[in-house]
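Q&A log
Question type: sequence-to-structure
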Amino acid sequence: MLKFLKGVVAGSGSGLKDLPYNIGEPYASAWGSWTHHRGSSKDDGSSVSIFSLSGSNAQDGHLAAGRNGVKRLRTVRHPNILSFLHSTEVEADGSGSKHVIYIVTEPVMPLSEKIKELGLEGAQRDEYYAWGLHQISKAVSFLNNDCKLVHGNVCLSSVVVTQTLDWKLHAFDVLSEFEVNSEAGTSAMLQFEWLIGTQYKPMELLKSDWQTIRKSPPWAIDSWGLGCLIYELFSGLKLAKTEDLRNIASIPKSLLPDYQRLLSSTPSRRLNPAKLIDNSEYFHNKLVETIQFMEILNLKDSVEKDSFFRKLPNLAEQLPRPIVLRKLLPLLSSSLEFGSAAAPALTALLKMGSWLPADEFSAKILPTIVKLFASNDRAIRVGLLQHLDQFGESLSAQIVDEQVFPHVATGFSDSSAFLRELTLKSMLILAPKLSQRTMSGSLLKYLSKLQVDEEPAIRTNTTILLGNIASHLNEGTRKRVLINAFTVRALRDTFSPARAAGVMALTATCSYYDMTEIAARILPSIVVLIIDPDSDVRTKALQAIDQFLQISKQYHEKMNSGDSHEASAAGATLITGNASLLGWAMSSLTLKGKPSEHAPVASMNSETPVAPATSDASSAKFTQNAGGVDYTDHPPAPPSPTSTDGWGEVDHGALREDREESDKEGWDDVDPLEELEPALPTSAAISAAQKRPVINAKPPAASSARPKPRAAPTSSALEEDDDPWAAVAAPPKPAVRSAEDDPWASIAVPAPRTKTKPLTSGARASAPAAAAATTSAAVDDGDPWAAIAAPPPTTRAKPLALGRGRAKAAPTAKLGAQRIDRSSSSGL
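Response status: OK
Response body:
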């Protein structure tokens, strides 16, 4: 029992008390007497590497060298030297007969096993070997030239590879200072040189010629070791004897001269590792140059960065794929996250990220992309929106709603029309991931402003977007928003493709409307467009009318069958094929200016007609017409409410902002039964008649109500007449109307108050007055207002002048004279 308790306290393996790491399976190879284990942290589970060395007693020579290696690894720091984390020495069995040293480092793998795992061949293998040798040469140069230290045993087994495929030097058991004037300077080498295999020892070390070693440069021994590493690397064999180094068949020709200088028999002539990096042609390849540029990116200017990142996507395809994904991609991601990379680097990041599995992409790339949405760099934001389709599906709904959308939404009000359009189009991917609160409280407010944007392409695509995301709105929001957005705004836009988009959006969302809405609000709005100046709008309007009439017929058949409740509830759901997405109608705006200032915007001509009632095909698909549409020659369409920034009531195309309802989306206060603006020919004739001069004398009470030309009925007229068909119905015959329901009574010339003698008989009448009276009598029969003027007053009501209590007869002659003078002058 006591022995068991001691084992638990002292422990070994994963149960060590003093080691906060779990020891896993060992690798097949390691340097010297060490064993290389996989491992993990007990705190967070992160991966580590654990090296263990056992000795029979505390004075074991291997343990003494191991303690030297632990001390050196702890104190020497360099990017290409293995990173030290933790170390401990314990008694394995508690009896003191066996001691074990543990070193915990960053997670690495033996180079020999990593080479087999990668399986690189040809030029890609040489490029990767060149990068690895470049890193080991820098580490050896740092030890020899900067620290005046000698490693003593550089070989294939003393090199390990990190998770980012970087090569790192370790095995510091024989590492010692190099001091020319002190014999004690090589004490560690003297003590532990027996640990080095004879095949790796240069001739002077093999003969223990310490006098020659002290006279040699500090890199002499390690340059020989670099030559041994190069041989083992390219031959694929472990060095068995020194004579095998003469076999140069596998050594690349560009590296051969330097390889021979590293293995010079004269220590003073051996090549300095620092010069090996600079002089060798072998190290100048695409992979090495690309990684070196990325590592010193902060020292490059903006022109160099821009040129490099524009070439990187194509260059990455030519580099070894594992190196790109494990080395270049993390470098690129961190440089973008911390602002040292230019905007074109985003294209390279997404292209390289697409080569990762989905789970790795979400873990390694998405966090960086989400942080980039908060960037103030407009070029970065444009790049993210342009490539949103490549990573948008990988974003979770919570991340989109809480972290992405608040930053993307700033683009809705950006001064750049190009960025506003990209932001709008991005909602096609992001909107399905938004919560109903965000969609109703924020997104619809932004879309309400974009539907009155100064750019016609943005207004058109806003309508298309609303049609596409309608299925993601709740029923109450759809009832409040869709019809008002499509009929009151889109169908009245001055831009013909915007009107066509409104028609197609209504068709694509027909399943969300009941028969009351179709009959009272949608069909009356679409019917007017069959006389639209644009042929494409007329065509789409007729197609939409056909589809809605089919819905009406099915509703009628349901009603006749007696199932009125089901017919009323089903509404437009009887028609299928309206659930597919609408395509973007307009071409993208340019960054250099508005399209309206440079070239006509693309037409909305559609190559795909509306799907029939029983078809499962796409209900609406807009395509871009190569030729522009010159909408400046068309007669003015209904004015678009583009004069304000928020939603308000729409009166004949003029938007009145309702500031009291600013907390709503903007569609709530739009009157769906407003009178449409385009006037029919009959109304145009009446308007022309109003512009003709009126010569008849007026009583004093009506002098201030002189009829003026009118282009359209006013808002007050709409309030008095709620008939939604008033704007498109033919005017009634005046002969059958009474005085009470005559719509022109308020503007017609009042009848004479009494049959008094003519104005020309007055005492103050002049010659021009007499002439005017004669002219009035002559044209009385052809008066254009005679047919629509109010009838003479009856006994049921007082005359208009007396009822209003205006001036008396004395001023009548004066006012009449002034009117006759103006008429006479205009007649002349």
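Response note: The domain at 21-107 is CATH 3.30.200.20 (Phosphorylase Kinase; domain 1).
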